[in-house]
Amino acid sequence: MIVHELLRKIARYYIDKYFSWLFSGDFRPDTYAVYEILECRAKVEFTRALPYTIMNTIVAPASLVGLLLHEGFGTVFSEECKLNRIFSKKIQVDDREITINGWPDYYDGDKVIELKFTTHPVKEPEPRHVQQVRMYMWLTECKKGYLLYVTPKKVYEFEITQPMTESEIVDLIKNWTSPRDPAECQQCQFKNICPYSRADVRERREEPKTEQVA
Ligand code: SF4
Predict the structure, then answer these.
(1) Which of 133, 138, 153, 210 shows a CA-CA span of 20 to 30 A to 105?
(2) Closest Cα to atom 2, ligand 1: which residue?
(3) Could you say which DSSP state residue 19 is in?
(4) Could you tell me which residues come within 8 angstroms of residue 46 by beta carbon, excluding any fewer than 6 positions away?
(5) Residue 78 to residue 132: CA distance in whole angstroms
(6) DSSP assignment string, 136-160
(7) CB atoms within 10 A of CB 44
């Protein structure tokens, strides 16, 4: 099957570009990516301990579409985004100095744009996506931010006007729960082994086998 070959190459490309730090094991405990801070704490710990599980996310068809869309977007706007890179800032949280890294989809020195792919119509942006743009605005010191949802039928645009403040970020780190939102568990690949899982118990429970009477 040709799909093996293609997925292998896509996964290798994606890991080399975005997750080589995860596989090197060379990450500092007090350094986090923006997307990590906004998701479940236990999920971050599971992923850091078991980096190969990232493959499950990469090869899921919906993620694959999103991933290829992002790469296409990055290629089309490479001229405008020459200044784009991994941005990094430090923040003090009690006695810990936390480093936060983030790489927006689009940064031209004036604005950031975050691109999302979904198959559903979008009435309101997801709060977590808004937080992501606001954190990129804080990191890049941009005053303008946009969230763009691409769906098969329509493109939705939301303008974000407020960068996240340092105190909001400190708050997010101090109140980093597992999960951040119970809805995360339903889609989580660790839901059957995670002690904090809030996924529907009926889904996770093993049905007892019916004894066959001879
Ligand atoms: S199952 Fe839920 S609580 Fe556990 S890691 Fe996944 S998202 Fe987090």
Answers:
(1) 153
(2) 185
(3) I
(4) 53, 190, 194
(5) 21
(6) HHHHHT-SEEEEEEE-SS-EEEEEE
(7) 18
Substitution site in 188, 200, 203, 204 for ligand 1 pocket (most atoms within 8 Å of beta carbon): 188
Cβ neighbours of 180 (radius 10 Å)? 19
Residue 203 within a domain: no
Q: For the whole model, what pTM was predicted? A: 0.89
Q: What is the CATH number of the domain that holds 151?
A: 3.90.320.10
Residue 144 forms part of a structural domain:
yes
Going from the C-alpha of 58 to that of each of 10, 16, 131, 135, the distances in angstroms are 8, 13, 23, 24
Please state the domain count of the chain.
Answer: 1
In a domain, residue 211? The reply is no
CB 59 within 8 A of CB 20: no
Rg for the chain, CA atoms, rounded = 19
Index of the ligand 1 atom closest to the CA of residue 42? 5
**Residue 1 is assigned to a structural domain of this protein:** no
- Residue 119 is part of which domain span? 27-50+71-192
Ligand 1 nearest-atom number relative to CA 196: 3
In three-state secondary structure terms, 114 is strand
Measured from the CA of 195, which atom of ligand 1 is nearest? 4
Reported confidence tier of residue 214, pLDDT bands at 50, 70, 90: very low
